[in-house]
Amino acid sequence: MLERAAVRAVAETLLQEYARTAEPAHNGGDSGPAILATLVAGQDRPPGESAAARAMATWLRDFRSPHYHPGLFGGGAAARMFGLRIAATTWTRLNEPLAKQRARLIEYVAAPRWRTAEVGWEDYDLIVGPAGVLVAFAADPGVDAADRAPLTARLALLCADEELSGLRVGQYQGEKLRGWNFGRVNLGLAHGLPGIVTALRAAAEADGLSEELTDLLRRLGARLVAESYVDGRGVITWPFGTTRPDGHRAPRGTGRRQAWCYGCPGNAWTLWETARVLGDKDLGAFAVESARSFLAAYDDDLYLDGLGLCHGAAGLMLLFDAFARFAGLPEASKLADHLTDHLMSRLGDPHALAETGWSLQEGAPGVLSALLTRNGGDRRWLAALGLR
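User: That's the sequence. What structure does it adopt?
Assistant: Structure tokens below.
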């Protein structure tokens, strides 16, 4: 099981290495270093001139580099705002740059440049699109309902018809890595419909459930249930995307991608949280049944894909820790414990861990932040993942 002192020691080593990096913009403003530094510094009052404080200074220097999208991950504007908000509770001087970053992003979403037809992931998703910005806005007490309204309206517009035609991806045709998504509605939490549901659910919790938002969340939740299937291992899961208009159906085999970003774990949690907000017992029961089906079939050799949050062990650990804490699923804690041990066993070489990069989603900051959080660390940053 988790030894907090050991994780902290590795985190401090990595933060020192990060702070020593001479070149700015080596992480592009991704929130990962800021979140990890805050979790480490939060154990010291006052934080002082620690490795965490020096790492924060390096992260702030990276703000000289441009951001290339408004999103919540990968160095987007919302990622910077979110990282500042988390860090400002420890380093209060950051409230001023936080306010400036927040104001710029509020101004941006008031007159958006997103497409409404032939969309790409950046036009709607949780990673680089407006769904992620809405998640960040919903978690920020400095953003009010009026500031969130354009984002909620934007996502509702794309989901206006029963076929969700506004979400059918019209980009990436012929691309090697993303071309499979052309003509489909993506069904993963990272780039698809579940990410939109997560954002709308977060907005509902921040601003209250209107009749329109209630109806929309019920319809989208029902659509996700309808798109699920049972694979050859008995897991209630989802294909990567819906059937294309030409009738080509996405593969529905027993895939190994079961993680935060795609498949049962992230989607089951999305549905459970949506059911909680809606008070929908049937939807909640389906979500728990889905999670249990994955727990029953779990196999390290099949499902583990690296250490990170997006599609690796850290993301699975946090998801099933959440199922244990909030959904009353005791068997989920056993998997979370197992994955904690798996991650701990791979912390022996901090420099090898640092080579995974500095991003929250895929790199060392996400892994270490997950481990520190599971053992009592500040949980506010989990909102970026649709967790709590």
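The first strand starts at residue 229 and ends at 230.
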